[in-house]
Design brief:
InterPro entries: Methyltransf_11, SAM-dependent_MTases_sf. The chain has helices at about 1-25, 35, 50-60, 65-70, 75-90, 110-120, 165-175, 205-210, and strands spanning about 40-45, 100-105, 125-130, 135-140, 150-155, 175-185, 200, 215-225, 225-235. The chain is of the alpha/beta class.
Protein backbone atom coordinates (compact mmCIF):
# COMPACT_ATOMS: atom_id res chain seq x y z
CA UNK A 1 0.00 0.00 0.00
CA UNK A 2 2.69 2.64 0.81
CA UNK A 3 4.25 2.03 -2.63
CA UNK A 4 0.93 2.72 -4.39
CA UNK A 5 0.52 5.97 -2.44
CA UNK A 6 3.98 7.24 -3.43
CA UNK A 7 3.55 6.62 -7.19
CA UNK A 8 0.78 9.23 -7.82
CA UNK A 9 2.68 11.71 -5.67
CA UNK A 10 5.87 11.11 -7.65
CA UNK A 11 4.05 11.57 -10.97
CA UNK A 12 2.56 14.81 -9.64
CA UNK A 13 5.98 16.14 -8.63
CA UNK A 14 7.50 15.20 -12.00
CA UNK A 15 4.65 16.94 -13.84
CA UNK A 16 5.07 20.13 -11.82
CA UNK A 17 8.85 20.17 -12.34
CA UNK A 18 8.42 19.58 -16.10
CA UNK A 19 5.92 22.41 -16.46
CA UNK A 20 8.16 24.75 -14.49
CA UNK A 21 11.11 23.90 -16.72
CA UNK A 22 9.09 24.54 -19.89
CA UNK A 23 7.82 27.89 -18.61
CA UNK A 24 11.34 28.91 -17.65
CA UNK A 25 12.69 27.85 -21.08
CA UNK A 26 10.13 29.73 -23.17
CA UNK A 27 10.29 32.84 -21.00
CA UNK A 28 13.96 33.22 -21.96
CA UNK A 29 13.41 32.87 -25.71
CA UNK A 30 13.84 36.17 -27.65
CA UNK A 31 10.51 37.65 -28.70
CA UNK A 32 9.98 38.37 -32.38
CA UNK A 33 9.58 42.04 -33.05
CA UNK A 34 6.18 43.10 -34.36
CA UNK A 35 8.05 45.09 -37.00
CA UNK A 36 9.46 41.90 -38.45
CA UNK A 37 5.97 40.47 -38.76
CA UNK A 38 4.65 43.47 -40.64
CA UNK A 39 5.09 43.60 -44.42
CA UNK A 40 7.31 46.48 -45.43
CA UNK A 41 5.64 49.22 -47.49
CA UNK A 42 8.71 49.48 -49.70
CA UNK A 43 10.70 46.43 -50.76
CA UNK A 44 13.82 46.38 -52.90
CA UNK A 45 13.83 43.46 -55.29
CA UNK A 46 16.77 41.13 -54.94
CA UNK A 47 18.93 39.67 -57.67
CA UNK A 48 21.33 42.48 -58.61
CA UNK A 49 24.94 41.49 -58.00
CA UNK A 50 26.23 45.01 -58.70
CA UNK A 51 25.10 48.46 -59.79
CA UNK A 52 26.35 47.69 -63.29
CA UNK A 53 24.12 44.60 -63.38
CA UNK A 54 21.16 46.76 -62.37
CA UNK A 55 21.95 49.33 -65.09
CA UNK A 56 22.28 46.60 -67.70
CA UNK A 57 18.88 45.19 -66.82
CA UNK A 58 17.29 48.62 -67.18
CA UNK A 59 19.03 49.05 -70.53
CA UNK A 60 17.60 45.72 -71.65
CA UNK A 61 14.18 47.36 -71.52
CA UNK A 62 15.12 50.80 -72.80
CA UNK A 63 17.06 49.45 -75.78
CA UNK A 64 14.54 46.74 -76.67
CA UNK A 65 13.86 47.37 -80.40
CA UNK A 66 10.24 46.21 -80.25
CA UNK A 67 9.46 48.41 -77.24
CA UNK A 68 11.14 51.45 -78.77
CA UNK A 69 9.14 51.00 -81.97
CA UNK A 70 5.91 50.84 -79.94
CA UNK A 71 6.89 53.92 -77.91
CA UNK A 72 7.63 55.90 -81.07
CA UNK A 73 4.55 54.79 -83.07
CA UNK A 74 1.48 53.24 -81.49
CA UNK A 75 2.04 54.73 -78.02
CA UNK A 76 3.33 58.13 -79.09
CA UNK A 77 0.12 60.12 -79.61
CA UNK A 78 -1.87 58.16 -77.03
CA UNK A 79 0.62 58.85 -74.24
CA UNK A 80 1.12 62.48 -75.20
CA UNK A 81 -2.66 62.97 -75.02
CA UNK A 82 -2.88 61.46 -71.52
CA UNK A 83 0.18 63.29 -70.21
CA UNK A 84 -1.11 66.57 -71.66
CA UNK A 85 -4.35 66.14 -69.72
CA UNK A 86 -2.45 65.51 -66.48
CA UNK A 87 -0.22 68.56 -66.99
CA UNK A 88 -3.13 70.80 -68.02
CA UNK A 89 -4.88 69.94 -64.75
CA UNK A 90 -1.73 70.79 -62.80
CA UNK A 91 -1.62 74.18 -64.51
CA UNK A 92 -5.23 74.87 -63.51
CA UNK A 93 -4.26 74.08 -59.90
CA UNK A 94 -1.25 76.43 -60.02
CA UNK A 95 1.20 73.56 -59.54
CA UNK A 96 2.72 74.13 -62.99
CA UNK A 97 2.99 77.16 -65.27
CA UNK A 98 4.28 78.03 -68.72
CA UNK A 99 7.37 79.55 -67.12
CA UNK A 100 8.22 76.43 -65.07
CA UNK A 101 11.63 75.00 -65.90
CA UNK A 102 10.69 71.31 -65.97
CA UNK A 103 12.34 67.90 -65.86
CA UNK A 104 10.89 64.48 -66.68
CA UNK A 105 12.81 61.68 -64.96
CA UNK A 106 13.14 58.36 -66.76
CA UNK A 107 11.47 59.80 -69.83
CA UNK A 108 12.32 57.00 -72.30
CA UNK A 109 11.68 58.56 -75.73
CA UNK A 110 10.12 61.72 -74.31
CA UNK A 111 6.32 61.56 -74.59
CA UNK A 112 5.88 63.44 -71.31
CA UNK A 113 8.38 66.10 -72.38
CA UNK A 114 6.53 66.60 -75.65
CA UNK A 115 3.27 66.80 -73.69
CA UNK A 116 4.67 69.55 -71.45
CA UNK A 117 5.78 71.55 -74.46
CA UNK A 118 2.38 71.15 -76.13
CA UNK A 119 0.56 72.58 -73.10
CA UNK A 120 2.87 75.60 -73.13
CA UNK A 121 5.70 74.58 -70.78
CA UNK A 122 8.41 75.10 -73.36
CA UNK A 123 11.48 74.91 -71.08
CA UNK A 124 11.18 71.15 -70.54
CA UNK A 125 13.66 68.31 -70.86
CA UNK A 126 13.88 64.65 -69.92
CA UNK A 127 16.64 62.31 -68.77
CA UNK A 128 17.07 58.59 -69.31
CA UNK A 129 19.92 56.09 -69.49
CA UNK A 130 19.55 56.22 -73.27
CA UNK A 131 19.22 59.72 -74.80
CA UNK A 132 16.49 60.51 -77.30
CA UNK A 133 17.31 63.93 -78.78
CA UNK A 134 16.03 66.56 -78.73
CA UNK A 135 13.62 65.69 -75.91
CA UNK A 136 15.69 63.42 -73.66
CA UNK A 137 19.27 63.77 -72.42
CA UNK A 138 21.44 60.94 -71.14
CA UNK A 139 21.31 60.77 -67.37
CA UNK A 140 21.05 58.44 -64.38
CA UNK A 141 18.26 59.46 -62.00
CA UNK A 142 20.40 58.31 -59.06
CA UNK A 143 22.94 60.97 -60.12
CA UNK A 144 21.12 63.75 -61.98
CA UNK A 145 23.49 65.73 -64.26
CA UNK A 146 22.20 69.12 -63.08
CA UNK A 147 23.16 71.80 -60.59
CA UNK A 148 21.37 72.34 -57.30
CA UNK A 149 18.02 74.16 -57.46
CA UNK A 150 17.68 74.00 -61.25
CA UNK A 151 14.02 73.09 -61.77
CA UNK A 152 10.61 74.44 -60.80
CA UNK A 153 8.85 71.18 -61.66
CA UNK A 154 9.85 67.52 -61.86
CA UNK A 155 7.72 64.60 -63.00
CA UNK A 156 8.41 60.87 -62.92
CA UNK A 157 6.51 57.65 -63.41
CA UNK A 158 9.54 55.38 -62.90
CA UNK A 159 9.98 55.43 -59.11
CA UNK A 160 9.59 51.64 -59.17
CA UNK A 161 12.77 51.40 -61.26
CA UNK A 162 14.92 53.03 -58.57
CA UNK A 163 17.34 50.59 -56.94
CA UNK A 164 18.09 53.24 -54.32
CA UNK A 165 14.81 55.09 -53.63
CA UNK A 166 16.42 57.38 -51.04
CA UNK A 167 19.01 58.54 -53.58
CA UNK A 168 16.32 58.91 -56.25
CA UNK A 169 14.33 61.26 -53.99
CA UNK A 170 17.42 63.08 -52.69
CA UNK A 171 18.39 63.99 -56.25
CA UNK A 172 14.91 65.36 -56.91
CA UNK A 173 15.05 67.51 -53.79
CA UNK A 174 18.59 68.63 -54.64
CA UNK A 175 17.72 69.83 -58.14
CA UNK A 176 14.32 71.33 -57.28
CA UNK A 177 14.17 75.00 -56.44
CA UNK A 178 12.61 76.00 -53.11
CA UNK A 179 8.80 75.76 -53.49
CA UNK A 180 9.36 73.60 -56.57
CA UNK A 181 6.86 70.83 -57.26
CA UNK A 182 7.47 67.10 -57.77
CA UNK A 183 4.76 64.84 -59.18
CA UNK A 184 5.14 61.07 -58.99
CA UNK A 185 2.90 58.46 -60.58
CA UNK A 186 3.30 55.14 -58.77
CA UNK A 187 1.65 51.73 -58.58
CA UNK A 188 0.34 50.67 -55.19
CA UNK A 189 -2.10 47.91 -56.07
CA UNK A 190 -0.17 45.72 -58.50
CA UNK A 191 3.33 44.69 -59.48
CA UNK A 192 3.24 44.88 -63.26
CA UNK A 193 6.77 45.59 -64.50
CA UNK A 194 9.33 42.80 -64.45
CA UNK A 195 12.05 45.45 -64.77
CA UNK A 196 11.02 47.22 -61.55
CA UNK A 197 13.68 47.39 -58.86
CA UNK A 198 11.31 48.00 -55.95
CA UNK A 199 7.72 47.43 -54.90
CA UNK A 200 5.73 50.17 -53.16
CA UNK A 201 2.66 49.24 -51.07
CA UNK A 202 1.63 52.63 -49.65
CA UNK A 203 2.61 56.31 -49.82
CA UNK A 204 4.10 56.21 -46.30
CA UNK A 205 7.67 55.48 -47.50
CA UNK A 206 7.44 58.47 -49.85
CA UNK A 207 6.47 60.71 -46.94
CA UNK A 208 9.59 59.55 -45.11
CA UNK A 209 11.88 59.87 -48.13
CA UNK A 210 10.84 63.42 -49.08
CA UNK A 211 12.49 64.93 -46.01
CA UNK A 212 12.77 68.45 -47.45
CA UNK A 213 9.28 68.62 -48.93
CA UNK A 214 5.67 68.80 -47.83
CA UNK A 215 2.86 66.66 -49.18
CA UNK A 216 0.44 68.54 -51.41
CA UNK A 217 -1.98 65.73 -52.27
CA UNK A 218 -2.53 62.08 -53.09
CA UNK A 219 -5.15 60.91 -55.57
CA UNK A 220 -6.06 57.96 -57.74
CA UNK A 221 -5.18 58.19 -61.43
CA UNK A 222 -5.11 55.93 -64.48
CA UNK A 223 -1.60 56.36 -65.79
CA UNK A 224 -0.55 53.40 -67.93
CA UNK A 225 -0.65 50.84 -65.14
CA UNK A 226 0.17 53.36 -62.41
CA UNK A 227 -2.74 54.07 -60.10
CA UNK A 228 -1.68 56.80 -57.69
CA UNK A 229 -0.47 60.39 -58.08
CA UNK A 230 1.59 61.86 -55.23
CA UNK A 231 2.57 65.53 -55.25
CA UNK A 232 5.20 67.18 -53.08
CA UNK A 233 6.37 70.78 -52.80
CA UNK A 234 9.93 71.48 -51.67
CA UNK A 235 10.11 73.60 -48.54
CA UNK A 236 11.84 76.96 -48.52
CA UNK A 237 15.48 76.61 -47.56
CA UNK A 238 16.59 78.36 -44.39
CA UNK A 239 19.11 81.08 -45.09
CA UNK A 240 21.88 81.32 -42.49
CA UNK A 241 23.52 84.70 -41.94
Amino acid sequence: MPMKTKLPLLKYIITIVSLSFLLLFFSHQPRRSKTLLTRSDLKIRRGYTSYDAYIQRQLNKTLNPKLREIWMTRDWDRKIHVFSRFFHELKLQNLLSNSSKSLCIGARVGQEVEALRRVGVSDSIGIDLVPSPPLVLKGDFHHQPFDNETFDFEFSNVFDHALYPRKFVAEIERTLKPRGVCVLHVALSKRADKYSANDLYSVKPLLRLFEKSELVRVRKVDGFGLDTEVIFRKKNTIQHS
